[in-house]
Amino acid sequence: MATVGLMYNLKGEPPDDGEPPDLGAELDSETTVMAVAEALRAGGHEVVLIEGNDVAYLRLLEKPVDIVFNMCEGLRGESRESHIPAILEMLGIPYTGSGVLTLALTLDKALTKKVLAYHGIPTAPFKVFDAGEPVDVTGLEFPLFVKPLHEGSSMGVGSSSIVSSVADLEREVSRLTKMYKQPALVEEFLPGREFTVGILGNANPLVLPVMEINFNPCPAEHGKVYSRQFKVEWYQDEFYLCPAPIDDELKRAIEDLALRTYRALGCRDMARIDMRLDRNGVPNVMEVNPLPGLTPGFSDFPRIAEKGGFSYVELVNTILGCALKRYGLEHLLSSEAVLARRIA
Ligand SMILES: Nc1ncnc2c1ncn2[C@@H]1O[C@H](COP(=O)(O)OP(=O)(O)O)[C@@H](O)[C@H]1O
Ligand SMILES: [Mg+2]
After folding, report:
1. Which atom of ligand 1 is nearest to the CA of 126?
2. Which end of the chain is more exposed for a tag (fewer CB within 10 A), N or C?
3. How far is the CA of 298 from the centre of ligand 2 (A)?
4. Atom of ligand 1 nearest to the CA of 226
5. Distance 225 CA to ligand 1 centre (A)
6. Which CATH class is domain 125-188?
7. DSSP 223
């Protein structure tokens, strides 16, 4: 049994005028934090709730925990997901999930793409533009896709993200850079099917069943984009195909791409990798989520894990178990029955 510090950042007040309408979309609700806490308790652990705020450091100094289950999306800044893990590392406290460098890197989608490209991993050609910069897309082919450089949860993403002319591109870059106060990432539009792939483990990671985002039931004017609206409103089963209806060859290609990406970015314990097929049918990585959402009945990761045979309690305890093993703390693993599988 371990004393687990469950660290999180809660959604705050609804956004004010002038703030992005989807501000805080990546943060967790109390219900999600409580679900994770309950799952950890079901795994036989003592749970201490610690908000990942600016006094977290003092709280961690005051009362030790064996390990932190990290859900912190961070409060501010382009490397916000790495802040609490950096403090934990300084204090010598073990934590679940990826490390400081991976969490900071994946919040910069362009830098992530550069690392992937180095490893020969397909990812759409791109450029980055900040507010007021000339939008020169020489070398890129329309249609293009525009999204904020440092956000997640499809913040700022919708049907207007696909642009087919310089005028539309300039309008979208200007809208995003103003609203989100950060550069815009402009990349070639990937027109094919969309998949997201969950991975659990370290030395010999397990690829969970591939999930396809099903755009067929969406209204035509919405477009084939896994938008903010899609994620909020269309969480019902019909919008997700898991396992995805794909042939063995594509399945192998997707799984292989997910594993190579996971390793190239140094992910630990878990991650979810978003990809789409390009016009030649080749899977391309769009982005990597080392801190995937864990809202039961809503988030992609628990949905995929369930199809892979992990109940919610098993998923949460497997993530914790992977981390305990990494730190050589297996003796703190209790209740073997809870771990459906042993993942190295
Ligand atoms: N290059 C692209 N081509 C086509 N669709 C894209 C592209 N980049 C992003 N998208 C769409 O936008 C969604 C959100 O983009 P993603 O990079 O996954 O950011 P987020 O961190 O917000 O999930 C994707 O799930 C996909 O539907
Ligand atoms: Mg995504």
Report:
1. 1
2. C
3. 14
4. 27
5. 7
6. alpha beta
7. -
Domain limits, CATH 3.40.50.20, in the chain: 3-96
**Distance between CA atoms of residues 8 and 96, nearest Å:** 12
Is-above-0.90 flag for pTM? Answer: yes
- Ligand 2 centre distance from Cα of residue 60 (Å): 32
User: Are residues 102 and 265 in contact, defined by beta-carbon separation less than 8 angstroms?
Assistant: yes
* Ranges in the chain annotated CATH 3.30.1490: 125-188
Q: For residue 289, which atom of ligand 1 is closest to its CA?
A: 21
Distance 40 CA to ligand 2 centre (A): 27
For residue 143, which ligand has an atom nearest its CA? 1
Per-residue pLDDT of the chain (344 residues; tens, 9 = 90+): 999 999 999 988 777 777 888 787 888 899 999 999 999 999 999 999 999 999 999 999 998 899 999 999 999 999 999 999 999 999 999 999 999 999 999 999 999 999 999 999 999 999 999 998 999 999 999 999 999 999 888 888 988 999 999 999 999 999 999 998 999 999 999 999 999 999 999 999 999 999 999 999 999 889 899 998 998 899 899 999 999 999 999 999 999 999 999 999 999 999 999 999 999 999 999 999 999 999 998 999 999 999 999 999 999 999 999 999 999 999 998 655 445 455 65
Amino acid at 161: S
47/39 Cα distance (integer angstroms): 10
Closest CA to 259 of 291, 233, 285: 285
226 C-alpha vs ligand 1 centroid, how far in Å?
7
Q: Whose CA is nearest to atom 15 of ligand 1?
A: 154
CATH of domain 3-96: 3.40.50.20
Class of domain 194-338: alpha beta
Between CA 313 and CA 36 the distance in angstroms is 8
Exposure letters 104-114 (e unless 16+ CB within 10 A, then b): bbbbbbeebbe
The set of protein residues with a Cβ atom below 6 angstroms from ligand 1 is 124, 145, 147, 151-155, 157, 187, 189-190, 194, 225-226, 274, 276, 286-287
